[in-house]
Write a structure and sequence with these properties.
With about 120 residues, this protein is an alpha/beta fold. Helices cover about 40% and strands about 30% of the residues.
Length: about 120
């Protein structure tokens, strides 16, 4: 199986940053964490992390997601996951991280959840 490097495309919907990921999130990949730090430093606090194009994630990638989630929450922000594939869903289930992350299959529902959470905490 051929894996491509991680690619990130950022889109915006109102105050929410949608991060579309494709490729693999693994031990040698550091760009995602750095990008989130930059976004947080810019005051961005609402995120939908679209995993639909992610074809591989190892425990280090999972650790990055937890680290990002923690950073976002510590700044009073909110992040949800969108469309993880079956393998990533199993990984989240095995590690019980499916009880930490809000996971959506529909982008509109994910955006609504982030915006509602934001309004509730404002």
């Amino acid at each position: 199986m051929q894996f491509m490097a991680l690619s990130m495309i950022l889109r915006e919907s109102g105050n929410v940053v949608i991060v579309d990921l494709a490729g693999r999130l693994w031990v040698l990949e550091r760009a995602l964490r750095q990008r989130f730090n930059e976004l947080l430093d810019q005051g961005r606090l609402q995120f939908v992390l679209n995993l639909a194009g992610l074809n591989y994630m190892d425990s280090s990638g999972l650790g990055q997601l937890v680290s990002i989630w923690t950073s976002v929450r510590n700044r009073g922000g909110h992040i949800v996951l969108l469309r993880p594939n079956e393998r990533i869903l199993r990984l989240l289930d095995i590690t019980k991280l499916n009880t930490v992350f809000e996971i959506f299959q529909d982008e509109k529902q994910a955006l609504k959840a982030v915006q509602q959470n934001w309004q509730a905490s404002a």
